[in-house]
Amino acid sequence: MKHLILGNGPAGVVAAETLRKAAPRDEIVMVGHEDAPPYSRMAIPYLLEGNIDESGTWLRKGADHFERLRIRQLRGRAVALNTGKRTVLFDDGHFEDYDRLLIATGSHPVRPPIPGVDLPEVQTCWTLADARAIAEHAKPGARVLQLGAGFIGCIIMEALAKRGVQLTVVEMGDRMVPRMMTPKAGGMIKRWVEDKGVRVVTSAGVQRIDRGSESGREAPLVVTLSSGERLDCDLVIVAAGVAPNVGFLEETAVHVAKGVLVDDRMETSVAGIFAAGDVAEAPDLFTGAHLVAAIQPNAADQARIAAMNMARGDTAGQAKLNGVLAINVLDTLGLISSSFGQWWGEKPEAGGSGVELVDEARYRYLSLQFKDDVLIGATSIGLTQHVGALRGLIHGQVKLGDWKDRLLANPLGFVDAYVARSQQPMALAR
């Protein structure tokens, strides 16, 4: 049996290692397209901060790790898939056949259609090559504009601030981290960041990027915002989101929406083809609706499930994913925030309710969202102890009973609720 894995990020690596344990005699081929060993993109900010060198980003430190596991590595980018012949065409013109295929091609940064976005001093922050280019321009005192204040943008911002640049962050949403934080929470993070010396402009976008020489300015770049303001910049970093790498699947029978649609076995619409990680769109834990949850823990979980089913084929006892749970934990210039599951902000849907606890002066915040008596979403700021209990209640879909009313009255009692309700089945078993 030959297993072909497209992608050598966290999902690809975990899948390859899981396959080797589950199928000791099978052939495993793992393909990556970058000129680097398998590495974690989430480590790039630490590289920019100078806390690690490039080898510190590598997912596995041993130079012969994959060779010892008999995992063959190839370099190339998939450009076409033939599901009938079970072959993949790569950008260098060669074909690779397979018996089982895992699509773990990840995602790529989105470059908005802005005039000047392709100038050399305009960078994304996604690859090691990007990090090298940013390090060259982001010297202490450099004028840097970052487009985007989402999850990835805030991680990059942390690294830039530590490099001592003059940083302006522009976000089209009305708050920072708009897809992770409620309006109140996002506003609190903005105030914290501004107190640390970073300028944040919300409800605005970049209209165009020009050469300074073409605008009569001495700066390398001049950025015009949608508000009409013009800013001199040495470097522009685009952190406007990512999109799954699915282009090579066009005109195939593999169903794609935002990402590659998979079932709870991580199998696609084509038998024998699986997907995991940032490229996969898997069922949500609560609603069953498909969701791309592009975070490394989800990628690893999905990869294990996919690999186990690739090894087992159609035999009984197949592994299943309980459902995707959106999880984000973020350190924004020292302010810790987290978001688990679903949240509805100020407008709970039918059958839902919520509570919000705000302490502006101490930068403390907690929002809990319920569906009937089950906690389905939580957002917090400044709470660094025991927040795992929130994840436990949500992921376990624990029925709270009368604890729901207690939490509506005192949201900070979530640890007591977790101990009381999540341990109940064990107590009853005794």
Secondary structure elements and their pairing?
Blueprint: E1 2-6, H1 10-22, E2 27-32, H2 44-49, H3 65-68, E3 71-75, E4 78-82, E5 87-90, E6 95-97, E7 100-103, E8 107-109, E9 122-124, H4 128-137, E10 143-147, H5 151-162, E11 166-171, H6 183-195, E12 199-202, E13 206-211, E14 221-225, E15 230-233, E16 235-238, E17 242-244, E18 260-261, E19 273-275, E20 280-283, E21 290-291, H7 296-312, E22 327-332, E23 335-341, E24 352-359, E25 364-371, E26 374-381, H8 388-395, H9 403-409, H10 414-422, H11 424-429
Parallel strand pairs: 1-2, 1-7, 2-3, 7-19, 9-16, 10-11, 10-16, 11-12, 18-20
Antiparallel strand pairs: 4-5, 5-6, 8-17, 13-14, 14-15, 20-21, 22-23, 23-26, 24-25, 25-26
Helix pairs in contact: 1-7, 8-10
Structure notes:
The protein is of the alpha/beta class. The chain has 11 helices and 26 strands. It has helices at residues 10-22, 44-49, 65-68, 128-137, 151-162, 183-195, 296-312, 388-395, 403-409, 414-422, 424-429; strands spanning 2-6, 27-32, 71-75, 78-82, 87-90, 95-97, 100-103, 107-109, 122-124, 143-147, 166-171, 199-202, 206-211, 221-225, 230-233, 235-238, 242-244, 260-261, 273-275, 280-283, 290-291, 327-332, 335-341, 352-359, 364-371, 374-381. Helix 8 packs across helix 10 (414-422). The two termini are 46 Å apart.
- CATH homolog superfamily of the largest domain: FAD/NAD(P)-binding domain
CATH class of the largest domain: Alpha Beta
**Measured distance between first and last alpha carbons:** 46 Å
Number of strands: 26
Q: How does the helix and strand content classify structurally?
A: alpha/beta
CATH architecture of the largest domain: 3-Layer(bba) Sandwich
Low confidence ranges: 425-430
Number of domains: 3
Our Rg estimate from Cα atoms comes to 23 Å
Mean pLDDT: 92
| Outline type | globular
The major β-sheet equals:
5 strands, parallel
Helicity, as a percent range? 10-25%
Strand order of the largest sheet: 3-2-1-7-19
